[in-house]
């Protein structure tokens, strides 16, 4: 994430701010132009009053780029759901911005927003189907219980996971969408991914059932970013994709705060993604060792409790290369991109 300053008084502001706390200016964010003063430019997203969306819309009374991707909102007659919706959208906006900056398609071939998000909650009816977070055909369903810190921590402990966040969920689920989008009509890409992650034609339901019954195989950390990544090639891809996004966003943020020397890596997400993953992973490991130590000194949980073994870095490189390739001008088979990386 980049750092931002108030367009009116030049004080530092944060990505989620709707108002500058120094001068009181109402803020509006444009994915291409950054922050402006609401009184001087653009139209606010129609969701601004309800969930404090600070993004601009193309015209008055419509949704912004990020909110357009949510096609189902939770039942707002339940008061707590408004806060849950706001938390999820607050976590989703940085992801949509990142996808936009990386030049990944944010629309399907019909021009409709994709991926689409359906935010649903349990009804309390014991006979009703459970709301499961997952992806199918370009639609990501997210159980809004994930927006409750206590509930998410309960699930994390139950699943024996070292890490569980809304940001991680969103990055993981969009990966399933982009596996489909970026291999559509491109058997060469699909063959490359199968050679690296395994054959996705393996029965998915049976694979998950076996994973939950038996757990990850011994020594999994030498070849996979997480235990769950061993369940099926699709999950290996999605888990690895999420960590590529963690790494890219984390490195850009560290650069913005002066934690990485300018000569060590090119500045900015659009340039970082063009660097070999081995170089990026080296910088990331060095950074996370320091941040892990700082967290330990403060009595907090480990900042980044994962190991980037060489086979994992090789998988990350495959994803990084796929993102850059999908953004290239000669990639005629891909759907229209939302933006273009600088050459």
Automatic annotation (TrEMBL):
It comes from the Bacteria. Residues 4-77 form the Zinc-ribbon domain. InterPro entries: UCP012641, Zinc-ribbon_6_bact. Pfam families: Peptidase_Mx, Zn_ribbon_DZR_6. This is Zinc-ribbon domain-containing protein. It comes from Cereibacter johrii. The lineage of its organism: Bacteria, Pseudomonadati, Pseudomonadota, Alphaproteobacteria, Rhodobacterales.
